[in-house]
Specification:
single chain, alpha+beta, Aminopeptidase, 8-stranded mixed beta sheet, 4 helices, globular
């Protein structure tokens, strides 16, 4: 398979925005689907230290994955989750694949790549959320070894639940 992953620069903001808008996912009802608005949001998130990676298939950008600023520890805490301890965790923010390339295991490849990065950053855990109705994403997370730990009502500002997952890095 001719699939490569690379980190991005500010020059890639338009590519990222186009992939997000054309992925076929509409998670946030209130999130604008305009490429220009996405470019502004991505630029701000890059300034905040979030990291983006592009997946290319046969040299064409087809997917993007985002992680929260790896210098900032994310703590799994939620009033709906009971933990004996709050664990520092890396946060996996988003994965978007152009609709034409769904169901080709690119999501698994990118997710496993991100897990390796978090391990290099020194994290023991990685957390993420997934929309309760995104069955492809839910199945992928379970197949990789993520564990369901709770829900967050109305996370997407549309009344839907987000399922919260974590995985322990070995």
């Amino acid at each position: 398979m001719d699939f490569k992953i690379r980190s991005v620069t500010r020059k890639d903001i338009s590519i990222i925005a186009n992939i997000k808008v054309n992925s076929g996912y509409k998670i946030y009802d209130l999130e604008p689907t305009s490429v220009n608005i996405q470019k502004q949001k991505i630029s701000k998130r890059m300034k905040d230290g979030n990291k983006y990676f592009i997946g290319e298939f046969k040299g064409k950008p087809i997917a993007v994955v985002t992680i929260k600023n790896p210098k900032k520890k994310f703590y799994i805490k939620n009033k709906f989750i009971l933990f004996k301890e709050i664990k520092p965790s890396g946060e996996f923010l988003g994965l978007y694949i152009l609709k034409k390339y769904h169901n080709n295991k690119f999501g698994q490849i990118l997710t496993k790549y991100i897990l390796c990065l978090f391990k290099e950053f020194g994290y023991s855990y990685v957390s993420c959320i997934a929309w309760e109705k995104n069955f492809k994403s839910l199945n992928m997370l379970y197949s990789i070894g993520f564990k369901f730990i709770g829900v967050e009502p109305n996370h997407f500002n549309n009344g839907d639940y987000a399922k919260i997952f974590t995985i322990k890095l070995i």
